[in-house]
Specification:
alpha/beta; four-stranded parallel β-sheet; 5 helices; globular; ATPase_V1-cplx_f_g_su
Length: 119
């Protein structure tokens, strides 16, 4: 990774991941592991969580984008991540709109500021 930036990893439905891949996000690491996971109906919860944890441990990944509905399924793993990098960002999916009240990053940020700070 010398001289290169960090990658963006994506976990989501086929349309979401395909959009990011068409935007040039997809890459393989030195072990030929992709930085994305297309989650289908038959994808197990264990596979989703295992992939998420593997992305957390990869030094070449700086941001993990995860569909909010998937983040809800592995909320314990998402909230256990406390390091600044890789940053974990929840995004909407095609089937479900984004709900800011469920976003772990926004919930943490709310605890840092009082309503007066935001005026």
């Amino acid at each position: 990774m010398s001289g290169r930036g960090k990658l963006i990893a994506v976990l989501g439905d086929e349309d979401t991941v395909t959009g990011f891949l068409l935007g040039g996000v997809g890459e393989l690491d030195k072990h030929r592991k992709p930085n994305f996971l297309v989650v289908e109906k038959e994808t197990s919860l264990a596979e989703i969580e295992e992939t998420f944890r593997s992305f957390l441990n990869r030094e070449d990944i700086g941001i993990i984008l995860i569909s909010q509905c998937l983040a809800e399924l592995i909320r314990h793993a998402v909230e256990a991540h406390a390091r600044p990098l890789p940053a974990v960002l929840e995004i909407p999916s095609k089937e479900r709109p984004y709900d800011p009240s469920k976003d772990s990053v926004l919930r943490r940020a709310r605890g840092l500021f009082t309503p007066d700070d935001l005026r």
